[in-house]
Amino acid sequence: MKIVIAPDSFKESLTAVEVANEIEKGFKSVFPHAHYINQPIADGGEGTVDTLIASTKGEKITLTVTNPLGDAVQAYYGILGHSSASKVKTAVIEVAKASGLDLIPNTLRDPQITSSIGTGELILDALNRGIKHIILGLGGSATNDAGAGILSALGVRFLDKNKQRLKPGGIHLQALDSIDTTQIHPLVQTCQFELACDVTNPLCGPTGASQIFGPQKGANSHTVNRLDKALAHFADVWVKTGKEDHRDKAGVGAAGGIGFGLMSLLQATIQPGIDLVIETTGLDKKIIGADLVITGEGCLDSQTLNGKAPIGVARLANQHHIPVIAIGGCISKDAQVLLDNGITALFSITPKNLPLTTLFKQARPHLFDCSRNIAALYNIAPKSQ
Q1: Which residues of the chain have pLDDT under 70?
Q2: pLDDT at residue number 383
Q3: H helices of the chain, where?
Q4: What are the tens digits of pLDDT across the range 44-94?
């Protein structure tokens, strides 16, 4: 029997690697001689770098960069190992590591002034190490600058009508008059950029970067409207330079519009993060011939349908007519919709009447117990038919 284990992380509790290992232990206690494919997964958000480093036996690169408010912060990215599906030297970078919301206290969050420059510094380091392919995960940013900070780190100059460089932050894009790309790092042209995201939002408008994600980054309704207009102006200036207008493309509103800026200048492509991770890890090949696929994430709900890792794994398994079990730290009431979209069964590891902090601390043994019980149920199911 072949069992593929491909979960995402349980946020604030267990990494994807830890989740996969506990599931395997639970199943092995019932099926010790089964053939297991342990393949932690991610969808472009938190944990993507660690998952791909572990999956490809890659290398972690740590350096000091600039956080969203201009202070120094330690961040890292990964260089994938030889087991990667990519045939060129590839780096995987998460926006959240250098430009993430978690790097800023709640009282200091302000998407008007936060900058993505630190992510650009990670990219710059990767280019200088000879990287020819960069996968950039767009989840978890504190910024709303459409990638202007990233591009500034790579040598692009954003100028006002007096030919002065704009201050960092999305609100200052409203004063943009011209864009000088003459000093961009030359290695940019030799690198392929792929953007991984799990949302489909455009740059501007009622479902755009500012309106949907601005409030969680510290923006009030007045600020949201100003930021939305600033991003629209930013797009207008890009179009005047002869660039294609990407503002309405799905996903360019991710991470405060970073997708738009990088598509406009770096010819970056954008796609669901789970698809990129599946391709990079080779899960699409590893899953062939499996009898069962097990996936999961911290919370299974209707939002899982929007490009999250479990539904991506399920759709892949469905192509091969393989049943899929999803395990969650918790299961929301609306999660039943997943049963109509390729997932065979849902299981929660969460015992009732326990505080959330306790559940986080005890996630590992609860996950093992849940996995063992699923395996026991799976073991007796054929006998009951």
Answers
A1: 83-86, 352-356, 382-385
A2: 52
A3: 16-28, 48-56, 95-99, 117-128, 148-153, 209-213, 221-240, 254-266, 273-281, 283-286, 309-319, 356-361, 363-380
A4: 888 899 999 988 999 999 999 999 999 999 999 999 997 555 678 999 999
The region, left, alpha or beta by phi > 0 then psi within -120 to 50, assigned to residue 63 is beta
Residue with tokens 């420059």: 117
- The string of DSSP letters for 23-89 reads HHHHHHTT-TTSEEEE-----SSTTHHHHHHHHHT-EEEEEEEE-TTS-EEEEEEEE--TTSS-SS-
pLDDT, residue 384, reads 42
- Hey, is 192 helix, strand or coil? strand
In contact, 347 and 375? CB cutoff 8 Å? no
Residues 6+ apart with CB under 8 A from 358: none
Of 270, 306, 278, 271, residue with least CA distance to 40: 278
- Is 278:309 a contact under the CB 8 Å cutoff? no
Residue-level pLDDT at 353: 64
DSSP-derived 3-state class of residue 148: helix
Contact 283, 56 (CB under 8 A): no
Residues whose CB falls within 8 Å of the CB of residue 188, separated by 6 or more in sequence, listed in order: 127, 154, 266
What is the rounded CA–CA span in Å between residue 95 and residue 37?
Answer: 29
Amino acid 259 reads: G
**pLDDT tens profile 241-251:** 988 899 999 99
37 bridge partner residues: 4
DSSP reduced 3-state for 347? strand
The residue type found at 65 is V
